[in-house]
Task: inverse folding
């Protein structure tokens, strides 16, 4: 394990993205949003994904110089064509658009088509917060790891939703959750270290029975949270983030994780909602603080040290990691060194 | 068991509500929305609740003649004060307002405060569908049956969300789900018949361990779907439906089920989103049909006869029940006869 300073990783990512053809401004923005996932504790969606992004950019599957286009714009809605660019760019633009609409109309609902994987959804749901707004992000997952309830075919993504809610003195509330019990990233860890997959995460496609052998993970289906309830949520989120925007869903989804060569046509959406249309922001923030403190000081189950409000740790984590850097596994450093060699850049390991 | 014709139940409910002081138009609307829950298969939220509603109306806890007031109205948002009226009236007005806003601005997000229990949320999420719109409903539950993840105090509702999505030749997609694994209504059935509560539904407040003895249900906490994920969803839904509207949440919630005598200040919200701001409605409807059929015709797990798309059975159920009437348990008929006696109406049992 090596600790890599954030600034070094940021510079490395900027250089790699720029060599792939992104403009300097776009490379900087994408690198910042990739590292934002690591900084806020979602390291499954951060720099660990860079080799994959670079592969798609160099292979021509993602467009490094997209012309983002607003196809439709009403008083409170917009639809954006991402021109197959990096999802981070498309979603940052969508969030900015939603915030502008909400400033004028109280709410902005912005959908995107022809986007790509955008990292951690919570990052975009958090963007409206500093404008005194609620943010809601949803997406069609970049691979189908679930079946509809009762089904045996992986036609449904673990479609995530993220919601950001401004607070006052307390940190903003930020939830960011997939509609599956576990993520495919968690399964992958068990595949790598050979430990059994906990029961309740995966069932076999052929028999619907619990699948715990990590060597058989590819024969499995991830289970939705709450059985048919999570399946229904994944369905509704997917239809609103995908087909409503003219983006891929169901049988149209190509697995981002297994080297697809065709455009993904990823669909995502974001809502910004201006709190001041409902009550003065300060009064709302005080109410959120009060409720957060009520929960934090409420009685705990045996063995629970602390009640964690989603989002409460984000700023603390950021400050810690800005100080300590990121602890990267040797395998990841090796992957990033390979990326550097391929792109003619100085190896990451020699920069640490 | 007796089969009660819908028209007889509707007339009975109208009379009962009118005796409680509702205007004839309001009594008719509320009765229709109560029975709509039964007709669409959510019988836990239909006529079974009438005795409770009547109790609150006669006891002065719910206002029979509310003056609904639009406190704030922007181009795409509104906040409504329900004046402590029946939740069905408040939410029907909120849905109408959201649809109007969406017609002009593409989207309407309408929050309500000082409302009450409104029956089945799916009814309101379905209202925008016939206008070519998506509907999204969310609410703070009328009692706290969950704790925040790690907590031992019931400070969180099983806060529900319902989403309606228009289709073409296929029935509209309609999801309506609480954020808990089971509902309190399901627990109550086990309490009544003495059968063990399935593991995974309830944990004990004192030890956090599975609680399956129905006699001890009152010592339990309902579990959220997906553990901390469902807890986070319930938190976010609750904050947006409650505090954002100036409505009750957390420690402010009074248990609707146990004879509260103070106003509940229930918070709910509804979004209407005009599909045609994103693509022509016919093209969208055809896409939803295609995806629904893909799921329905996809491979099934062993033992699964049919893949059920949420909402697909609603119209069929309605037609069946309009024909067959509702099969009411004798205990419910007795309760409704008691209501009739109290209000000076002809007993339900003599009308069947």
Result:
């Amino acid at each position: 394990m090596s600790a890599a300073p954030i600034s070094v990783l940021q510079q490395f990512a900027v250089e790699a993205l720029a060599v792939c053809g992104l403009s300097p401004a776009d490379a900087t923005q994408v690198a910042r949003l990739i590292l934002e996932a690591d900084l806020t504790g979602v390291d499954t969606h951060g720099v660990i994904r860079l080799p994959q992004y670079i592969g798609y950019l160099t292979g021509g599957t993602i467009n490094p110089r997209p012309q983002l286009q607003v196809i439709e714009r009403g008083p409170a809605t917009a639809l954006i064509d991402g021109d197959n660019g990096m999802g981070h760019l498309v979603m940052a633009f969508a969030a900015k658009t939603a915030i502008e609409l909400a400033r004028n109309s109280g709410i902005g609902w912005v959908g995107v088509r022809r986007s790509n994987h955008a990292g951690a959804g919570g990052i975009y749901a958090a963007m409206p917060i500093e404008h005194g707004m609620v943010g809601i992000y949803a997406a069609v997952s970049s691979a189908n790891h679930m079946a509809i309830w009762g089904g045996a075919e992986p036609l449904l993504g673990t479609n995530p939703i993220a919601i950001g809610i401004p607070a006052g003195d307390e940190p903003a509330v930020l939830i960011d959750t997939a509609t599956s019990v576990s993520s495919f990233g968690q399964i992958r860890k068990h595949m790598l270290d050979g430990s059994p997959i906990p029961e309740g995460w995966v069932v076999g496609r052929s028999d619907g029975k619990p699948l715990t052998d990590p060597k058989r993970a590819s024969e499995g289906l991830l289970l939705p949270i709450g059985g048919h309830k999570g399946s229904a949520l994944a369905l509704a989120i997917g239809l609103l983030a995908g087909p409503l925007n003219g983006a891929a869903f169901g049988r149209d989804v190509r697995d981002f994780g297994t080297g697809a060569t065709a455009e993904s046509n990823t669909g995502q959406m974001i809502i910004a909602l201006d709190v001041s249309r409902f009550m003065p922001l300060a009064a709302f923030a005080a109410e959120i603080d009060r409720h957060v403190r009520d929960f934090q000081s409420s009685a705990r189950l045996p063995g629970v040290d602390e009640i964690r409000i989603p989002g409460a740790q984000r700023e603390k984590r950021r400050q810690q990691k800005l100080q300590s850097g990121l602890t990267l596994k040797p395998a990841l450093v090796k992957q990033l060194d390979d990326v550097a060699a391929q792109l003619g850049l100085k190896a990451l390991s020699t920069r640490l």
Observations:
- Chain A has a mean pLDDT of 96.
- The CA atoms of residues 140 and 297 of chain A lie 36 Å apart.
